[in-house]
Write a structure and sequence with these properties.
single chain, 335 residues, Rossmann fold, 2 domains, four-stranded parallel sheet, 13 strands, elongated
Amino acid sequence: MPRLRPVPFVLTLAVVVIAVASLVGVRQAARAVNGSVAAGTGTGPRYGLSTVGLSYPFAAAIAKGFTEAAARAGATAIVLDAKGDVQKQANDIDDLIAQKVAGIAVMPLDSVVAQGWVKRANAQAVPMAAVAALVGDPRTRAITDVYPGLVALASQDEVEAGKQAGKLAATWLPTDRVARIAVIEGAAGFPEVEQRARGFKLGLDAAGARYRIVASQPGNWTSEGGEAACQNILAAQPGIDLFYNEADDMVIGCARAVRAAGSQARLIGVGGSKLAIASIKAGAVDGTVCFKPEALGALAFEALHAGARDGAPRFRTYPIPAVTQATVGACVGQW
């Protein structure tokens, strides 16, 4: 009998409350930091953050952590919103360099294109750190191999995140046959897409899982994209055992598609979002990998503020455990 996933009223209410709160927070962040001074005394050194887009809750949480860390240090944070446009992000970086800020943190929309931004900043003696994604070719550069010219990379280990998801997924797969897995990817150009997919397979293999990835489609990091991708896959292959979503926003949409199809597929995401945590508690999603974007923003600022003086590793990170309904209390959503 299929394992149907009921949607309790408490989950529906939680989803509405969290979604409204998140939307309000993002709008407030966008009004406060969209290209203008975001936080600080106005008299201390100025630091810039080029974010992929404040409409993404994860990016907004990084901006919050960055600006709060700047305020604690008596500095001023300038946050610029690239709105998902690589050319705008390039222009934003040039603007920050022209302003002679004390340092720039960048969430690169394109990790390969970002190599040129580092060189331009270095040429003007402006320190630069990457946050949440590496600079360089993700197919040839390990996450801990920080691109030359960067003060630091503040990020979770994306390959490790995928590996944690893979190990967790292996505990739910059938043991009497080869399991059928579908992967919902992010958007093209983001290094996390390849890294999280590679780590997922490593985790499954390390756990000795018998599986085959029978489908893979982009969900473009959004709930709507995740829902559409999972609908398409289930229409063609209704016997999917597990959906691995490379981000929590997509797993929320995928959960809707799984419920609508009456599928018993397991669902795992990445990110530890507030909405995903609520869904795990209610039984609509099976698990996720816990990220802390506010901590990333703070780590990026601290790396720029300290420079090379503190002798800290150039790769800065934090623990990223996989959580289920039994352990989700250990993951406090920051976005």
